[in-house]
Amino acid sequence: MNAGAYGADFSQVLERALVVTASGADWRAPAELGLTYRHSALRDGQVVARVELRLVTREPDEIKATVSELQARRKAAQPTNKRTFGSVFKNPDHDLTAGRMLEACGLRGQRIGGAQISPMHANFIENAGGARSDDAIALMTEARRRAFELYGVELEHEVQLLELPELPPVR
């Protein structure tokens, strides 16, 4: 994953990465890894085993100020003081982000059971009280339906949904 936030991403500090496969290992520069937003050119069977980073010396006060500013920006834009299911959808290849698209679909604040689309950022589902996973999945289904209906975009889940085996009844 090469997620970017506030104009920065991992490739900006990566000097090189040791990529290991069944046939051996080789060092690769960032350009050879094909790093883009939440993607790399690595294939099945290729594992990054080690990295070397290019770090820059900064004064502690400068670091603290930068971290404070980034935290303030995040708190102003995302529901950081709520229990959420995280960022729900990946940003599509579209002019609008997933959050802006869902907002335009009129989903801010929509609720199913105890889960609700965040009134602050429409790409977050909040636990508004007693939310169950079925509630969140129903909201995700409705959000995907509306985004497809309005924009023709099939939103891809950010969260990973796992199928669990059915448990035997408790006796």
Task: Explain the overall architecture.
The mean pLDDT is 88. β7 and β8 form a beta hairpin. The chain is 28% helix and 22% strand. The chain has 171 residues and is of the alpha+beta class. The protein is built from 4 helices and 9 strands; from the N terminus they run ββββαβαβαβββα. The strands form 3 sheets. It has a 4-stranded antiparallel beta sheet. A 3-stranded antiparallel beta sheet has the order 4-3-5. Strands 1-2 form a two-stranded antiparallel ribbon.
List strands and helices in order, with pairings.
Blueprint lengths: L3 E2 L2 E2 L4 E8 L2 E5 L1 H4 L13 E7 L6 H18 L6 E4 L10 H7 L6 E2 L2 E3 L6 E4 L5 H19 L20
What class, by secondary structure content? alpha+beta
Order of helices and strands: EEEEHEHEHEEEH
Binned strand content: 15-25%
User: Oligomeric form of this entry?
Assistant: single chain
Q: Biggest sheet, in brief?
A: 4 strands, antiparallel
DSSP helix fraction: 25-40%
Mean pLDDT over the residues: 88
**In total, how many beta strands?**
9
Query: Low-confidence spans: pLDDT under 50, at least 5 residues?
Result: none
Question: Top keywords for this entry?
Answer:
three-stranded antiparallel β-sheet; 171 residues; 28% helix; alpha+beta
